[in-house]
Design a protein that fits this description.
471 residues, mainly alpha, two-stranded antiparallel sheet, 2 strands, globular
């Protein structure tokens, strides 16, 4: 076990400290330049799609019963990547990297939004129709249809199933169980039973129940957490100018540069930002493909906005709460305990219980989102209903086991699997990016003409195997 732990640790160091950071940064920068900073220029469209001012459907088209809306697909993806890392991981990054880490999280969100737009636009373009009239898709599907590499799609699907539906969900369940034990003195077996039942009730209801649950949970949890962060800022209003000055100084200050602190801040901020928003890793496209929209870029924009929600809103909220705590870098508390102590310092003892509630909402929504990623990829491998039933039972059992198990090596193994998954997806979307850029330019052309964009595959030369867009 020690040898295995050592090997996995070395692989993770190479993947996450060198290879993936470089590739994801370069990808984000390249797509930002290639699309003419579309993630910034089209920010108004993102907000309009969220609020409904710009319809995700064609003008006059009504929602089809049983189909997932663009907003619901957005919520499934946000539910998965907004998790306990936004509470615990950001606290660790700030305590190690200082205030400057928060600035570099913002930068990586800005660049990552471009990568997210590319991969999710591809997922929408190459989605397929289900027998019930709904849609499914993701990296495995565009690997098969755009690259002609179905075997690579099979490999990718297996990695997603193992990583998200099983390993990540054991960790999320474990986090919830530990939080319940601390706040409510609840035994892990009771917490395991409650979580297993709740999970079964949602996932056995199919995609539409998943979409309905997360489209309710995600806005509530995100808004509640951000509101509390704003309340903390209001209580410390006289410290706000100094807070932002510290963030900028720590990111660019001469003293920090000489002492090497800028490098630490950059590394921590970039790693946490990339890991949190998952842009380019091939996870969110599984949710993006499920929606019925009139143009693939509409869902690409919604998912790019999810990167901003994850990092600019929720990670920043945690960062502000922690940085306003005088002992944030004392080393006495780390991770979720640091976030709890920081919030309790500002608002009182109820802050600790509020964080426990947030852990439940964030982790349980991640659990449901992770499950759906597994379901979409299992459907790529097989259409067997009995296989899907067995898969759902296994997910519930892993949730139960994760709640009572002592996890350590499991989390490191998940990092390896996710790293390999990201590496495959980054290379694939780089190869396919000219198609995605052409589709984005088609959207922007229609918007300049004052239209509510509608996509026709025949308008893009050389675009093939787009069965949902051929009409």
């Amino acid at each position: 076990m020690d040898l295995l732990d050592f090997i996995i640790g070395k692989i993770n160091t190479v993947l996450w400290s060198y290879v993936l950071i470089a590739l994801l940064l370069l990808s984000g920068l390249f797509y930002t330049l290639r699309t003419g900073f579309a993630q910034g220029r089209l920010l108004g469209d993102m907000v309009a799609l969220i609020t409904g001012k710009l319809s995700s459907l064609k003008d006059g088209e009504k929602k089809v019963a049983g189909q997932v809306t663009g907003f619901q697909a957005f919520c499934i993806a946000v539910a998965s990547h907004v998790g306990t890392g936004n509470l615990a991981g950001v606290a660790i990054a700030v305590s190690i990297g200082g205030p400057g880490a928060l600035f570099w999280m913002w930068i990586i969100a800005l660049l990552g939004a471009a990568t997210s737009m590319i991969e999710n636009t591809l997922a929408q373009t190459y989605k397929v129709r289900n027998s019930d009239g709904g849609f499914r898709g993701g990296p495995s599907y565009y690997m098969e249809k755009a690259l002609g590499q179905k075997n690579l799609g099979y490999i990718f699907s297996v990695i997603v199933i193992v990583t998200f539906a099983f390993i990540f969900n054991t960790v999320q369940a474990n986090t919830i169980a530990k939080a319940f034990e601390t706040s409510f003195n609840m035994t892990s077996y009771v917490a395991a039973g409650i979580l297993a039942v709740l999970t079964a009730l949602v996932i056995f209801g199919g995609l539409n129940r998943i979409a309905n649950v997360v489209s309710l949970m995600v806005p509530v949890m995100a808004i509640a957490y951000v509101v509390v962060a704003i309340f903390v800022l209001a209580l410390n209003i006289h410290h706000i100018p100094r807070l932002f000055l510290n963030i900028i100084e720590a990111a660019f200050g001469i003293k920090q540069a000489v002492g090497g602190a800028i490098g630490v801040a950059m590394l921590q901020g970039i790693k946490r930002g990339l890991y949190s928003n998952e842009a380019g890793m091939g996870s969110a496209p599984n949710a993006a493909a499920t929606s019925n929209v009139s143009h693939p870029v509409k869902q690409g924009l919604l998912q790019a906005f999810g990167v901003f929600v994850d990092t600019i809103l929720i990670c920043s909220a945690t960062g502000f709460i922690v940085l306003l705590y005088p002992e944030y870098n004392a080393g006495t508390n780390t991770g979720i305990q640091l976030t709890q102590s920081a919030l309790s310092y500002s608002v009182g003892s109820w802050g600790m219980h509020f964080i426990t509630l947030c852990i439940f909402l964030f982790a349980f929504s991640s659990l449901i989102g992770n499950y759906y990623y597994g379901e979409a990829n299992l459907e790529f491998i097989t259409k067997s209903k009995s296989s899907m039933f067995i898969f759902r039972v296994l997910v519930v059992l892993f949730v139960f086991w994760g709640s009572i198990a002592s996890l350590g090596l499991v989390w490191d193994m998940a990092d390896v699997f996710m790293g390999i998954m990201a590496l495959i997806n980054i290379i694939v979307i780089a190869i396919l990016s000219p198609k995605a850029v052409a589709i984005i330019k088609d959207y922007m052309k229609q918007r300049k003409e004052g239209k509510n964009p509608v996509f026709r595959a025949k308008d893009i030369p050389g675009l093939e195997n787009t069965e949902c867009w051929d009409a």
